[in-house]
Amino acid sequence: MNENKANINWYPGHMAKTKRLISENLNLIDVVYEVIDARMPYSSKIKDINNYIKDKPKVLIMTKIDLCDLKETNKWIKYYEGLGYKVVGVDLEHNKNVFKIIDVTNELMEDYNKKREDKGMIKRKTRVLIVGIPNAGKSTLINRLVGKKAVVVGNKPGVTKALSWIRINDELELLDTPGILWPKLDNEIVAFNLASLTAIKEEILPIFEVVNYILNTLYKYYPEVLKERYGIEQLDEDIILTFDKIGKRRGCLMRGGEIDYDKVMMIVINDLKDGIIKNITFDRYDNFEI
Ligand SMILES: Nc1nc2c(ncn2[C@@H]2O[C@H](COP(=O)(O)OP(=O)(O)OP(=O)(O)O)[C@@H](O)[C@H]2O)c(=O)[nH]1
Ligand SMILES: [Mg+2]
Q: Does the beta carbon of 95 lie inside 6 Å of ligand 1?
């Protein structure tokens, strides 16, 4: 893959602004929910997060468990637990394990609440900040916890535009925030994982390179998916030939019978985006140098 695709300086002003607003609100916060995508437990974790959420108690929430390869993702769960994180995996599509988060939050607040009680003070609402990369499922998580559609969600990065407080019940209040990244996407694998799994907009990286990366990654770790979905047993040395095969199989033909490559690329991108291709984890613990 092309070396100079790394070091992508893509850090829009609204992300810097969100970070500033988070810092300004930090003194109101008791607990932080750091939301990451179970299909990329390393790539989707904000690299400089400790710089601005300091030492607040944290819960690491892995969304999209229903779409991941649990065998691989479990290795990352163990890794993060080993670092001292409280990790909760959730499937927000089917509302699984969501209330485990509340139990963990209550555990984190137990000492603090006990101290208040001992001093004769009334129990205070727990205020939680939710942070994570774009499209990780932060707002969906809030809707699940509140039990109705309280905030706007969408299957593309950049849906939430402003910070907003949502009351869950008398004991819990959540601060939803827009997705953020870190200033330099200097690790090529991380950048391509983010693009492949809908955390950064398609146009940030060349779409051809992204699709090439997706096909190569599937071929390396999940060859059966390529076979089932696209009838491909082996990638061609010239990836265009593989595009041709996908195009023929999926009827992406232009007038005159030529392959419509834009359509082929969108089919692959959308198969991941829509969760049609699942049971996949692109970050491989065994191959990573952290
Ligand atoms: N299959 C599946 N889809 C999920 C899960 N969690 C979130 N999604 C989907 O992921 C997409 C993004 O959800 P949002 O809640 O809008 O993401 P966000 O983190 O708030 O994104 P921004 O506001 O853009 O930063 C939506 O299409 C959700 O339905 C999950 O656990 N499983
Ligand atoms: Mg959102």
A: no
